[in-house]
Design goal:
With 342 residues, this protein is α+β, with helices and mostly antiparallel strands. It is built from ten helices and 13 strands. It has a four-stranded mixed sheet. A three-stranded mixed sheet has the order 1-7-6. A two-stranded antiparallel sheet has the order 2-5. It is elongated, with a radius of gyration of 32 Å. It starts with 7 loop residues before the first helix and ends with a helix. The chain binds zinc ion (ZN).
């Protein structure tokens, strides 16, 4: 047959034997997953497209009369194909992104997020008593400069609020509410300020009490867990409380010694390069690192990198020729010896 009807069972991840209850459950689960409020950029339009498809599938399959007509229209070959798809899809959904929403601030996944707020599918153990809100996890990125001084970060969290269009019921005059995609909830962003102390380590999990999701029946808010991620610096990198950087020097600065200006996390400082410094040797600047847990300060270590000028003058050339005439050990003898063992 020439029909281009979409495979509605496949969209819902169900087989043709699905009960009306299975259809409803699958719809609600996927509607939460695709909720466009929770996505941005390219993912958002993709989710909007998926939701439209889902909605269309649900409108047909949830109506016994329309479902019957649909089943009659689609051929038995389509049927067996969609069964295979349904199995594959249900499996991937079990491990899909519903349970991996930590980045956007939804700790326990989207389904839990709505279910806990609206008490759906979960009976409160003691109805009438207030219930503490869920904990939320999110990641905050700080710079090395922030680690040096400490910083107050504004963290944006998404929080469920009942849908104003349908009053949280998910439907409007017998149809799915388009404002909340039938979930009865919208996500609203809430900005909070969090103080990050100086000297914080990468990967620290900070607990911010009472900044999680609101509780039920006037219960306390849950807690916020912040994963602190330190952005690698362009010049400095951190090792414990010390900072490291590469310091380019001219050959004559290394050979004869020099006083040069070097960067630190605060302001540039003057430093003496000792005469006869070898390439890759390190200069230690005491107390120019990061604050330590014990109230001290780490060091800044500069590794000398001897660089050659791009072009040399005729005069420099003469000087190099004089240098070349002197006797030097072969700088390659070590790698030639080592290369025998590679
Ligand atoms: Zn709504």
């Amino acid at each position: 047959m020439g029909s281009t009807t979409r495979d509605y069972y496949r969209i819902l991840g169900l087989s043709r034997a699905a009960s009306p209850d299975d259809i409803k459950k699958a719809f609600r689960r996927l509607a939460r997953q695709y909720h466009p409020d929770l996505h941005s950029g390219a993912a958002k339009s993709e989710m909007e497209r998926k939701f439209k498809e889902l909605n269309e599938a649900y409108e047909v399959l949830s109506d016994p009369e329309k479902r019957k007509q649909y089943d009659q229209r689609s051929s038995s070959t389509t049927w067996s194909r969609s069964e295979t798809h349904a199995k594959g899809r249900a499996k991937s959904d079990d491990f899909g992104f519903t349970s991996r929403q930590t980045q956007s601030g939804f700790g326990g996944g989207f389904a839990d997020f709505f279910e806990n707020l609206f008490g759906e599918q979960r009976q409160s153990p003691s109805p009438g008593f207030n219930e503490q809100g869920e904990d939320v996890e999110t990641t905050v990125e700080v710079s090395l400069r922030d680690v040096y001084w400490g910083v107050t970060k504004r963290v944006s969290l998404l929080e469920p609020v009942p849908c104003a269009t349908c009053g949280g019921s998910g439907s409007l005059r017998g149809r799915i509410c388009h404002a909340c995609f039938g979930t009865g909830a919208r996500a609203e962003s809430r900005v909070i300020e969090v103080k990050i102390p100086a000297g914080i380590q990468d990967g620290t999990k900070m607990r911010v009490a009472g900044k999680g999701r609101p509780g039920g029946n006037g219960g306390k808010r849950g807690d916020l867990y912040l994963h602190v991620k330190i952005k690698p610096g362009k010049v400095f990198h951190r090792e414990g409380d010390d900072l490291h950087a590469v310091l380019p020097v001219w050959p004559w600065e290394a050979a004869l010694g020099a006083e040069v200006t070097v960067p630190t996390l605060t302001q540039p400082v003057r430093v003496k390069i000792p005469a006869g410094s070898a390439a890759e040797s390190k200069l230690r600047l005491k107390g120019k690192g990061l604050p330590t847990a014990s109230g001290g300060q780490g060091d800044l270590l500069l590794t000398l990198q001897i660089i050659m000028p791009r072009a040399i003058s005729e005069e420099a050339r003469t000087l190099y020729q004089q240098l070349a005439r002197q006797s030097h050990p072969d700088p390659r003898s070590e790698i030639i010896a080592k290369s025998q063992h590679d």
